[in-house]
Amino acid sequence: MPAKKPCTPPDDESLLAGTRRDFLKQSTFLTAIALTPAGVVKAAENKLDEQIAAVFEKMTLSMEVNGVQHQLSVEPRSTLLDILREHLDLTGTKKGCDRGQCGACTVHVNGRRINSCLSLAIANNGKKILTIEGLAKGNELHPMQQAFIDRDGFQCGYCTSGQIMSAVACIHEGHAGSEMEIREFMSGNICRCGAYPNIVNAIQDIAKGEGKV
Amino acid sequence: MNQFQYNKAKESLSAIKLIAKDPNAHFLAGGTNLIDLMKMGIVTPSKLVDINHLPLSKIEKLPTTLRIGALVTNSDLAENEFIKSDFPLLSLAINAGASPQLRNMATVGGNLMQRTRCPYFFDTAMPCNKRVPGSGCGALQGFNRMHAIFGASDQCIAVNPSDMNVAMRALDAVVHVSGPRGERKINIADFHRLPGNQPELDNTLQKGELITAVDLPYAPFSKNVYYLKVRDRSSYAFALVSVAAALHIENNTIKEARLAMGGVAHKPWRLTAAEEFLKGKTVSEDNFKQASQIAMQGAKAYHYNQFKLKLAPNTIVQGLKMASGLAS
Asked: Which residues of B touch A (CB under 8 A)?
């Protein structure tokens, strides 16, 4: 009987290293897949490498914000709200619901009030944006800002910049003729503190003194 | 939000081609519904084709119809002088929906395409045949207070959330579309569909088809009209029940009536039998009550929306009273 070949135990070190390496390789791959946007995975599956590049490509966005021209590089999925706050440090515009239900993110685009959380930044290329920071002239508050202070039109203040931007637009649109009309045309701005009566008072003050806004 | 490719279309044909060759591409107009759905992970396009630069923002008076470009914003439409004078019902309905900010963004074409606000459609942890065909309907045995009482199926009991669509249904709007196989017109009655076995389909548009305009045929409904929307708060909420009523009245006699309801079906719900009943009748609360009973035939409620069986006919009567001037 031939001598039994001693069973050579596997080199623990190398086995472990190999396993660890395989594991790491595999888990890294899985993590990468899990963290990769669906569009990219799909593009990769279809071997459409050029589409992968396109999906990650940042695009050039030119827009005027509060009278200052900006040129930015943005991802297509960035909203106007996020670009204002994160890239331009204009944090006066607030993120409330981020779904167009609260009005805290209200800004004016080409003179019209919109919810900046539902607007892709890149879709605003070439447009003029006005945020709460652009209302005052130096140290002189915009009349609507002053009216909100005079009438105590806020408590916690989180919704206030959206309220004021909306209020200015409400006057421009000619929808501030009565308390009922103001309430209807300010309904897109929710105030959790319930400062509504004072907000209506502030807007009525400005509506009565036409030409100030 | 998932990454996607962004393209800006300069003319309709190239926009249609871009969409037609990519099964997961979407048109982007106002974005008030689409961007929301993308944030929630309900719609995950690989490509968006921004159509906002296409020349579709005009309102034109043609010999027999008023033509509204698909990119006219909801606020421009509601404030338009022709709409206010000739189709005031549409103006009332649009101003009853959303908020001024959203109406400044949302377009006519986008409003026609607006998806349901059923909470089970919006919650990706829940089953929904509209979102994931074959996954089941969470609303059927769930919290179905906002849901349909007409034309639902055991696959889907969601409702169309639009106010504009209800007025357009009453006004016999015609939707113009342009697609890979050319142009065609769709009567609004055939544009939105009932859920049946394919609740994932809201409308009868084909892949790659782009709404270019909506025609409103001239009709004698410039005076006795009303849009009554009943909701949980007095503004900025979706309808529990809404009624669009347009009456052509001469010498206290109804020559023609148009009635449509929102918040009750998967599509804007036209009350044809009630309209027939009202034709030739005098303006009276009794006739309006009878019409409302006729309109409710075939209604079916679910566990939490039983109240709509009473709210809907009451809303019809009140809507007709407001339109006719019996109430103010």
From this structure: 1-6, 24, 28, 31-32, 35-36, 38-40, 44, 46, 48, 50, 52, 75, 95, 98-102, 104-105, 234-236
Disruptive mutation site among A35, A115, A161, A172 for chain B (greatest number of B CBs within 10 Å): A115
Rounded to a whole number of angstroms, the CA Rg of chain B reads 19
On whether the A143-208 domain is CATH 3.40.50.880, my answer is: no
Decide if the complex's ipTM is over 0.90: yes
Q: Is the pTM of this model over 0.80?
A: yes
Q: Which two tokens stand for residue A30?
A: 């899985």
- The answer to whether A57-134 and A143-208 have equal CATH topology is no
- List CB contacts (< 8 A) between B2 and chain A: 37-39, 77
Three-state DSSP state, B68: strand
Per DSSP, B284 falls in state: -
Rounded CA-CA distance B278/B299 in Å is 20
| Residue-range domain boundaries for chain A | 57-134, 143-208
Cβ-contact B211, B70 below 8 angstroms: yes
Instruction: Check: CB of residue B302 under 8 Å from CB of residue B144.
Output: yes
> How far apart are alpha carbons A29 and A25 in whole angstroms?
6
What CATH number belongs to B224-324? Answer: 3.30.390.50
**Number of residues assigned to chain B:** 328
Give me Rg for the CA atoms of chain A.
Answer: 28
- The tens-digit pLDDT sequence of chain A (213 residues) is 444 444 444 443 444 444 443 444 444 445 555 556 665 556 555 655 655 665 568 999 999 999 999 999 999 999 999 999 999 999 999 999 999 999 999 999 999 999 999 999 999 999 999 999 999 999 999 999 999 999 999 999 999 999 999 999 999 999 999 999 999 999 999 999 999 999 999 999 999 985 455
CATH of range A57-134; options 3.10.20.30, 3.40.50.10170, 3.40.50.11240, 3.30.40.10: 3.10.20.30
Distance in angstroms (rounded) separating the CA atoms of residues B90 and B170: 9
Per DSSP, the three-state class of B53 is coil
Q: Which of B40, B53, B71, B99 to mutate to test the interface with A (most CBs of A within 10 A)?
A: B99
Alpha helices per DSSP H over B96-178: 100-105, 108-112, 119-122, 164-170
Pick A112's closest partner by Cβ from B36, B104, B236.
Answer: B104
Using the beta-carbon criterion (under 8 Å), do A169 and B100 form an inter-chain contact?
yes
Instruction: Considering only the beta carbons, identify the residue of B4, B32, B236 that sits closest to A77.
Output: B4
Structure tokens at B242: 């809404």
Nearest partner of B68 among B206, B196, B164, B136, judged by Cα: B164
